[in-house]
Design a protein that fits this description.
The chain has 2 helices and 29 strands. The chain is about 10% helix and about 40% strand. The protein has 3 domains: about 30-145, Immunoglobulins (Immunoglobulin-like, Sandwich); about 155-245, Immunoglobulin-like, CATH 2.60.40.3620; about 250-335, Immunoglobulin-like (Sandwich), CATH 2.60.40.3620. It comes from Pedobacter gandavensis.
Length: about 350
Amino acid sequence: MKSNIIKYISLVLVAIGLWSCKKDGTELVSNVSPAGTLTASTSALDLSLANAANTAVTLSFPAPVITGVIIPVTTTIQIDRKGKDFSNPTEVVVTTASYAPKVSEINAILLGFGFKAEVPAEIEVRLKSAPAPNAITYSNVLTLKATPYFAASWVYAPGAYNGWGVATADSLVSPDSDGKYTGIINFPTDQLQFKITPKKSWDFSYGVLGGLLSSDGSAGNLAVPKAGTQLISVDLNTKTFSIVEADLWSMTGSATPLGWGSDIDMKFINDGKKTWKVTADLLAGELKFRKNHDYGSNYGGSGGNLVFNSSTNIPVAQAGNYTITFDIPNLKYTLVKN
């Protein structure tokens, strides 16, 4: 009798186990609907600094439908220049069934793609739905038209390097006027202190107090840790700042009075365009641009076009005083005779 009871219990346990496996096997199946239709509240975006805080466009789409086992689905808005086939898109992960970026956000994306301010541009957007790396689907593609604006604003950094002259102080730029400013300034030896002024005036200035930017009268001067080119970043929203050593670009070559192996240092222009510039006397000859006085990273080229680590030197046909512009983002240079 006892043996029969044990056998009965064993059969019940086996049956329960089989039922559980079948149930688990059923629940392991998950079906996720493909990316749905993407719609936009407008295809012609109105961008301007005056409405920077407004919504530029609202992109809407259906949430994915999941049956069976519930799994996470990563939904992403992809944005790219029109005609680029989303080869290097800006991506924004969204957790709701819409995406409503501000005017300032779209403007920053356009400028980041290299579109010029005040020049009409076109971008494409689509929805990417990814429940798994091997199960990615995409929505329809929408084309949006917009004209980006130049949104930059500046603060100034008078200091010992320029005799504390606020009118001639170098600047820090905020490309999106969001209170975050950066700039590269060259500090000579023993001239390392400076302050931040919102305008070219001593009426209001920031020093440092307790490790933060402060306009308190007891705030001390900011100071870079060493001489040379320094990247300065300040956030007037949080009153924080950072200072790190920056790369320096210079010119060398037979077209410079110093010859090959010696350098004429260039100045970084804090205008948001990331160019370097210098005015110098040149000779008929050749030159190159190089980073940190080293040929390990250099640009040559011709016809106004830069080529990284090129064996071709940039020609200078005639001696004279020139304004030289070195534009890395656009791989261009100019030699303008004054």
